[in-house]
Amino acid sequence: MENGQKRISDLFGGRKIFNIPKYQRAYAWEEQQLKNFVEDIENQKSDRSYFFGTILFQAQPRREGFEIIDIVDGQQRITTLIICMKLLLAEQEKSGNDVTMLKDTYIQIYNRYKLRVLDTDNDFFTSYILQDNRPDDSQVHTPSQRRLLEAKDFLRQAIKARPDKIEKFINTIESMKVLTYSVEDKAEATLIFETTNDRGKSLTSLEKTKSFLMHKTYIVSDNSETELDALQNRFSEIYRSYEEIESRVDEDSILQYHFIAFFQQWKNKSEYQNHVHTIKQKVNGLINANNIVEAAAFINQYSLELKESFEFTRTLFIRREPYLLDIFALSRQATFYPLLIKTYKLDNSDTKDNFKRIAQLVEIICFRLSIIGSRADKGREFLYGLTRDFNGNFQRLIRKLQNFITSNCSDFAFERALKSPSFHSDVNLNDQRYLFWKYENYLRDIDGYSEMSYDEFTNAKPRSRFSMEHIIPQNPKESTVVVDDSILSTTDFESQEFVDNYLHSIGNLTIDPISANASKSNQNFVYKNQKYFCRAPLMAQNELIDFLNDETGQWDRGSISKRLEAIRLFALERWNPFKPGQKSSEIAEEIPSRISEEEMWEDIWSSTEEPVE
Predict the structure, then answer these.
(1) Are 564 and 419 in contact (CB under 8 A)?
(2) Which residue of 35, 48, 576, 604 has the fewest C-beta atoms within 10 A of its own C-beta?
(3) Where among 152, 173, 193 does a domain terminate?
């Protein structure tokens, strides 16, 4: 293919098959880029040419009489253009127009489609995008397939909304100007790869790293074609790993986590925040010092470990181990990803017991820090440095994490937060729900029932997702109840003393589905217990009867105090950094089954003062 400026119709004309190489990312355009694409075409004046940008190609050997052309840069634009032309030509056919030549140019010639996308998506692309089949959800296997389908739907709607502009759109596309540059081999492509970019989406840090490493591999390698093949294969695997988890974590975040964990030369925050620049400085420094062999070895090792980090991150999400799901449920794991990735890699055992222990300590740190009100990034610099310096000594790492817990979220601070009369307003709602999810499963385990699963707990359906319920309501309906042998109106519960010391205490809270919570409204405890709590599928509600006043059978201040104590003792054992993974039955043996209110309050108030140094 000749280099230079040409019309789109000339670019696609003839027996050409365009191919997206395996080391490129899959289809990534979303609504904003598609909207820009349509608006650019629509707003183009008929007397002026529309410049479509620069496209970088690499010619491959001819096969079966066809020119095979790899799209090195520009695959997002080319793919979108072909989808758009397919839809435009379909509308023209419905109007009785002959579009045979245009279909030969842009869609399919001699039973060969003009564009071949990545192998994982190509059958989907031909079957459901270029043909008129409509997939159901079971046929959509990758995020890129979903985006291809969404692009087709978006463009179809845009075209249907402009029936009088279909011919203008086709003419505008055909007359678009494009600047093409065709390279002879991978080595030449790296010379200009860093300066090219797809119109519509900025290059990510991962893409910048890929292009930089490809370019430097060409410079330092004696066998650049072979080395570039290896590097491209690694990035192909990186993109495939990431596609499975892209809704869970950002690709550039994984790139930074990898740098923090495995680039042992970084010294400060600035270097890991500007990790792409730091890597460039490292490689360029070696090359400028004529340490060519060392530069080549560094690129090889860094890209290999980067591929592994993406694979390990993918594995962390798809393993669905309970101790990992706990961390994800807390939604505070970003600071700990480098540590999780590195410890997973360096635990060479089949059972991954050392990694499991680290993950359990991470969950304890996340939860205890959140309960005491610390920022999610507390201790981040220390933890990042700990990760960087970790070399496989798990026992030493465990001791350091335990020391971090005792220094930054001690038992004293943790207990004080749990005992706080304003617990409900002090603690993030998701963390409250998480605490009661674990308490619910603790109660179920004691009685031999199956646990509430992660999927049940994280269910986001509007009516069945979990919320927090006040046992004595925040805004009670007017009625009379018995409390401490006295007949009281619910207005007595509005006293400042009760609100300040009991209403928002952990002992007056329970987990509840939103629909059930709404149906209880602001009813008093007697009504709730008779109608809901005693027959609820939740053990945390069934057990409330165990805390009723022995004499009156009512839920009162003493009930709240005793339940607070039970939950406090449970939490101290469940999130004990020196006994991670302890079973509920073991915890129960250490928790008194009954404690007097006087003993409980003596313990609570005696521990609210700061300890003497």
Answers:
(1) yes
(2) 48
(3) 193
d(CA 361, CA 274): 29
Residue whose C-alpha is closest to residue 559's, from 442, 481, 448, 456: 481
Mean per-residue pLDDT, 370-384: 90
Q: Describe the strand order of the beta sheet including 4-7 as a list of residue ranges.
A: 4-7, 177-183, 51-63, 66-73, 16-19, 115-116
Beta strand 16-19 with 115-116 is parallel
Assigned domain for 475 exists: yes
Residues 459 and 562 in one domain: yes
The parent domain of residue 271 ranges over 205-409
Closest by Cα among 91, 89, 84 to 100 = 89
- Pick from 2, 14, 9, 54: nearest CA to 176: 9
pLDDT tens-digit readout, 472-520: 888 765 544 444 444 444 445 557 888 889 999 999 999 888 755 555 5
Query: Are the C-beta atoms of 507 and 546 separated by less than 8 Å?
Result: no
Pair 510, 494 in one domain? yes
Q: How many structural domains comprise the chain? A: 3
Residue 563 CA to residue 548 CA, distance in Å, equals: 10
Does any domain span residue 200? no
Q: Residues 176, 50: contact at Cβ < 8 Å? A: yes
pLDDT value at residue 484: 46
Residues 375 and 422 in one domain: no
CA 19, 21, 22, 28: dihedral to nearest 10 degrees? -80
| 290-332 pLDDT tens trace | 999 999 999 999 999 999 999 999 999 998 999 999 999 998 8
Confidence band (pLDDT; 50, 70, 90) for 218? confident
Last residue of a domain, one of 134, 166, 193: 193
587 pLDDT tier (thresholds 50, 70, 90): low
User: Between β-strands 486-489 and 480-483, what pairing exists: parallel, antiparallel or unpaired?
Assistant: antiparallel
Tokens of 287: 């090359």
Are 99 and 153 members of one domain? yes
| Residue 612, domain member (yes or no) | no
Domain-embedded: residue 482: yes
Give the three-state DSSP class for 385. Answer: helix
Lowest-confidence segment of 138-142, 201-205, 479-483, 537-541 by average pLDDT: 479-483
